[in-house]
Design goal:
single chain; mainly beta; two-stranded antiparallel sheet; 2 strands
Length: 48
Amino acid sequence: MNVVKVEEVETTPNPHGVDVGVLYDVEKVQVVHVTLKSDKKLKRNNIH
């Protein structure tokens, strides 16, 4: 088992300007941790 601590994961640059850390990434699944500061928000994604 691989233990991943959120506070130790490096953040990944992204076009939204929020902190994103990849916790798990394999061929069919990716788990990320997104941290939003109190003054930040994400734009709504309208892709169906």
